[in-house]
From TrEMBL:
Name of the protein this chain belongs to: Histidine phosphatase family protein
Superkingdom to which the source organism belongs: Bacteria
Biological source species: Paenibacillus lemnae
Origin organism lineage: Bacteria, Bacillati, Bacillota, Bacilli, Bacillales
InterPro entries: His_Pase_superF_clade-1, His_PPase_superfam
Length: 188
């Protein structure tokens, strides 16, 4: 089974980097929408593929463009997670996740998966590494058990890097971030 990580396109919080990182719930910029539209021309997401999306505006907008309004699942288990993990770093406003009710009100989306875990306040951003690994492994085990040919995870650089490490990669740094509308593929 192929697991494909996709990083969202250029967001409003990056227009005046780093001064706008404390923008709450930034959307994609016009350029970010363009990047994702170009990406849609390079990859094929089939209706029977699994698509998991972080509960932020920019990732949901990315998914909507890539999926051509087909269904996808929103999960805080693929929400923003800082990398490297440092509990002393402040949580940036741009990394606050939307609540279930905000998601429903903004997008009418009811496909939410959280395994009834208590991770809707801060998401997975600041939880301890061992707890993140338990949650992430639970999600990966579920994905493998569902027998999809391809699973797409639309997320954030730090989250994708944390998952890549969990999947066995070594010595990753911020230099390994995918960048805007970047793709990383791995076979499970």
């Amino acid at each position: 089974m192929e697991l494909i990580f996709i990083r969202h396109g250029h967001g409003e919080h990056l227009k005046d980097y780093p001064n706008r990182l404390n923008t709450m719930h930034p959307s994609l910029t016009d350029y970010g929408k363009y990047q994702v539209t170009q990406l849609r021309n390079e990859i094929r997401i089939n209706p029977d593929d699994l698509v998991l999306v972080s509960p932020t505006k920019r990732t949901i907008e990315t998914a909507a463009i890539l999926k051509n309004d087909m269904d996808f699942i929103i999960s805080p288990l693929v929400g923003p997670r800082m990398f490297p993990q440092n509990p002393e770093f402040p949580i940036l406003a741009c990394d606050h996740i939307l609540s279930k009710s905000e998601i429903s009100n903004l997008y009418g989306v009811n496909n939410i998966m959280d395994y009834d875990l208590d991770c809707w306040v801060e998401g997975i951003n600041r939880i301890e590494q061992d707890l993140f690994e338990v949650y992430a492994q639970h999600l990966l085990d579920w994905i493998v058990g569902e027998s999809y040919n391809k699973t797409f995870i639309i997320s954030h650089d730090g989250t994708i890097t944390n998952y890549r490490i969990l999947l066995g990669e070594k010595r990753l740094t911020r230099k390994d971030f995918l960048g805007e509308a970047g793709i990383y593929r791995i076979n499970l």
